[in-house]
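Quick start: read one record
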Amino acid sequence: RHRLVQRDAPRAGSPRLSLTKASGNPAVRILIVVVLASIAFVAVYPLFFMFITSLKTSIEFAVDPLALPENWLNTANLIDMWRRFDVPRLFLNSVFYCTAALAITLIVSFPAAYAVARLDFIGRRAFFIFAVVTMAVPGIAYIVPLYTLFADLGIIDSPLAVILAWSASATPGTIFLLSSFMRALPRELLEAAEVDGAGYFRLMGSVVLRLSATGIVTVTVFNVTSWWNDLLTPLVFLQSDSNATLTLGVANIVSRYNSNVPLFVTGLLLASIPPILTYILCQRYIRDGLVMGAVK
């Protein structure tokens, strides 16, 4: 035991010892704090700006956009936004589209990722490389082909168009991430389940699914927040206001009420709340999932 401690101790001149000494330097600590505080300020200030702007009137914003609101209890913009644009309907549309797209993505990606990570079949490497290559293609490149295809199928201005477009664009990346997680699963547990007589579906449902829960939560958060903030896809494929998402509804405010900046910012604030809460509630799973995928 004593020998193990001596062996693991950092040697003089080693990078780890140099890093430890540098982090103990007060000047380095102050620099680290300043850098992290600057990053935090850049990330938090837009949210604070949206919050204080949503509490202002149009006249207050025109006089001084950066000033604090005169009335911190002013909810006129929130009430106006809620009544004019039917926020509950837009919110439910976004939730429905994201849920349906997520279900399709996981149904397709989960068994595909397991096959790539654990099964040996002809063309496995080629399939994985193809999935990775498609991730490098920008999403906007698919818009025209998808619009032509969906127009031929007659599903333009239909929720199905947005759901299929989202799930198709997210499937390669989901396969890539889930396969990384599944490679880190203990092979002994999978082999023990097979010895006990577990078939494919029981193995996937009782063992692989439970062990991959952290990875599934991670890809779910990434995909859902990306879809929630997506404006281009609903803007192209949805034409009626009844099918609009919350992000698309906020964008319509600019064209209709471009002079009322506080109302527009209030819509942005409402659209930002669900992704922020999702990251806050699921941050532990995201952190564990990224570490799990990095360690085999």
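Residues 23 and 194 are 49 Å apart (CA to CA).
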